[in-house]
Amino acid sequence: MLDGEFPVAGLDHPASIERDEQGIPTIRASTRRDLAFATGFAHGQDRFFQMDMIRRQAAGELSEMLGAATLPLDKRHRFHRFRARARAAVQALTVTERAILDAYAAGVNAGLGSLSVRPFEYLLLREQPKAWTTEDTILVVYAMFLQLNDDRARGDVQRGLAKSVLPTNVYAWLYPTGTSWDAPILGGPIAAVPIPEAGDYAIRDVELIPNPATEQDSPALAGSNNWAVGGALTDHGRALVSNDMHLGLSVPNIYYRARLITTGDGKRDVTGVSLPGTPFVVAGSNGRVAWGYTNSYGDWSDVVVLGPGATAGTYRTPDGDEAFVVHREWINVKQADPVEYKIRETRWGPVDDRNRFAGSEVAVRWLAHSPRAVNLKILGLETVAKLDAALDVANTMGMPPQNFVAGDAHGNIGWSIAGQIPVKGGYDPMVPADWSNGSGWTGWLDAADYPRVVNPESQRIWTANARVVDGDALQKIGDGGYDIGARAKQIRDRLFEKDRFAPEDMLKIQRDHEALFLGRWRTLLLEVLASGGREMEEYRSLVENWIPAASADSVGYRLVRAFRLQVRQNVFSALTTPVRDFHGENADLLISHQFEAPLWSILTEKPRHLLPANVESWDTLMLAAVRENIDSFEKRFEGALSERTWGEMNTAHIAHPISQAIPWLAGWLDMPREALPGDANLPLVQSPVVGASQRFSVSPGDEAKGLMQMPTGQSGHPMSPFYRSGHDDWVSGAPSPFLPGPTRHQLMLQPAR
Description:
753 residues, alpha+beta, Penicillin G acylase, beta-roll domain, 11-stranded mixed sheet, 6-stranded antiparallel sheet, 23 helices
């Protein structure tokens, strides 16, 4: 229902939902509570099944609707007991916050109830939708933790296996804290760790066993880009903020565009992307301040090695042996009996039932398990008037910790962390540790002590999932697996190429896919190919004449990229063979995003003592990688090597969850399978299933000239005219407006009498 009047219970005053030609709503209400209700109504109309899937996934309740096939995923997520944690979080809300979430839930159910027939997915599944509850909104926030954090600190275990075997200097070399690509906004690149001498480490007795790399071995991180320029660099003196958040892409999109306006209570007017299941704008502009996020990749989870207590069912703590608390969870399974799932809990967190470390049981200490992890402080961003106030709000918010970049209408710009930061002491947080000696998380960083950057002399701030700071600030945030700095560096350098910016300039940076990171790899590859045989002439020609960008039609880009991945795989495998020999051939070892530093040093310095026994020279190893790639392409594809474009591999697969189970519906439900430019390690991040879930550039107070793009469309129903609306602009990069367009439909919600 898009037009007319609709009476609803639970609304105090009339509210309106005005949709433009793409279905983007402007939602108006007198009070914040009524605004939450009306926002829920729109979400319930357009996105209820998506919201249902998100809450079920976070709570580990998919099998109740989808059957036994999703039982492993349910166990994986039920491990965190988020349903129970959500109930507790709701009890901790303030009266005002609770009223807003209650109103939102009532609005969602009213919107669902306004439909003439339940969403089509329930018809196919022969299910009835369950009403939305207040605690379900908290589950949606927990779902974002699952997407953005290492929920079981797997990186700690993987690094720990290597550290337990390798000499200290070798471990430091293989797992550096950064590379020459680093471009932090505070500090500079960290000095490279030198290659270990032959007396410290040698693998001349190790034989390289070729392990073909796949083209997906370097997927795009679930992350984002954001940046801001100060008022000195814009014609109107206002800050200009840009954001593109990279997440898994699906139908419908994870976000939902909206403009939210209250005409009485506090007078707010905020535009951006909302997260269906929640009543607020996640990122956008309120007319005075604009803000956006990138995933911080700080260290938000740790592995605690458990020592067995003197009696069964206990473990060691600083206060003596303590009994495990056992939670018995029941997972309902469609057309089958419920399944009991037991979770043992320690004072630090649940015992990991999927991973051990060096034979010992481990517990997971994760930020998301803390009562502080989730709150509704984000609502404060709707009415802040200045940058400092926005940073103050960000430092108190409960959410997956993010790089928060903001700018205000006065031209100020700043960065800080949004989300809670634990204080740690007495152990190395990068690897598993025994906390029974009193080490561990000792408290929470006070908001006044959060690192900040405000109005730097350059008038430019940028983040892209890489390391942002150094020194004491880095110690506070930690390292949770930062991306290599190549993307951040390319963005930074683009920002310094101009001294005046408008939204269109920012869109060019968001769409930048020049292959700067792979440039030196192409040079290296051509040097290697100089000693190749005639069978490599076509390969050499394609590399020599490459399109130096992650363009859909570039063959050379794909070849250079594949060469790097294969060499990376072979070198890492050889260097870490002693670790696998010690822990077992199937030991899961982490290839750090920072491995580029030791990899490049070894290929340029070519130390003989780190060369595998069955390889004559480093050039021979690299030439073998070329042959492996050629063989791989020949086995997997028909046709000439010149047909292996990047777009052939980087083809969008933005699918509806139903089409995964019922493939013949894919043509109706999924977005077009289009070849896309972009890749990891450059600003236009794009893989078949990960990419920009939105892009915007906006100056607060000048929203009418701002730009925004979003994949898929507003509606989750394939017969809606809004199902694919706006998707073509996202694919092509066409500049589309930040604000909703002229009203095409108006639905008035009236309080039921």
